[in-house]
């Protein structure tokens, strides 16, 4: 197995194009001893998903088109826990639903068996980095145990770079108008409609209209939920 410390972290930064960052991530994952990586943001908006991956196409294509991510126990774990989990352990406790069984069968058919899922977090939202290992289960578990902290750090490095400089590749982007975005920023600060109307120099009725449009586009039940959804989706 390659030692992660023998391959210093590559330089990331805002000057790098997404294509360059993606190439660097795929290369770094290979140097770490893994065959592939699957990175996505975790959003409370579940009708779609954005991801970056070099996993086999026969897995990624149906995973997205059949919306298997709605039933993915790995994503469910990482949305509420800070600890990494293997796909095997995650599926083992969640194979009761038909959809989860189909997803598990899909991963095995595509040769995806040994994966480590690492929950990741930034001020833009949460996500998960899945690392695919192509060897035996014993070698996979040994590598995870020996390089546990380093794999967490590497995953956070990837997610942090993407979240900061290329959030549109991980999170669903809401098409808010300039005025709606301005209003949302005031909502985040907890301001009342009256306060917002004075700062935006519009009527209270116009603010109510803007708030209503924001809630509709974010599919939120109220202002608090709208702020949570916007934060988790990288819109803030």
UniProtKB/TrEMBL annotation:
GO terms for biological process: regulation of DNA-templated transcription. SMART domains: HTH_LUXR (SM00421). Pfam families: Autoind_bind, GerE. Residues 169-234 form the HTH luxR-type domain. Keywords: DNA-binding, Transcription, Transcription regulation. GO terms for molecular function: DNA binding. This is Autoinducer binding domain-containing protein.
């Amino acid at each position: 197995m390659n030692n992660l410390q023998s391959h210093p972290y590559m330089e990331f930064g805002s000057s790098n194009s997404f294509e360059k960052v993606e190439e660097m991530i795929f290369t770094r994952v290979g140097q770490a001893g893994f065959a592939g990586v699957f990175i996505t943001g975790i959003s409370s908006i579940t009708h779609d998903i954005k991801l970056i991956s070099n996993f086999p196409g026969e897995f990624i294509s149906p995973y997205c088109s059949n919306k298997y991510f709605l039933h993915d126990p790995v994503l469910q774990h990482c949305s509420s826990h800070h600890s990494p989990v293997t796909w095997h352990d995650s599926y083992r406790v969640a194979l009761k639903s038909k959809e989860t069984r189909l997803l598990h069968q899909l991963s095995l058919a595509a040769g995806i068996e040994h994966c480590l899922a690492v929950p990741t977090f930034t001020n833009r939202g949460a996500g998960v980095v899945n690392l695919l290992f192509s060897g035996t289960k014993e070698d996979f578990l040994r590598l995870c145990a020996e390089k546990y902290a380093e794999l967490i750090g590497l995953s956070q490095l990837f997610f942090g770079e993407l979240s900061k400089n290329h959030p549109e590749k991980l999170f669903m982007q809401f098409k808010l108008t300039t005025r709606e975005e301005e209003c949302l920023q005031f909502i985040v600060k907890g301001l009342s409609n009256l306060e917002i109307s004075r700062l935006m120099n519009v009527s209270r009725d116009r603010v109510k209209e803007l708030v209503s449009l924001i809630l509709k586009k974010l599919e939120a039940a109220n202002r608090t939920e709208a702020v949570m959804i916007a934060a988790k989706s990288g819109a803030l």
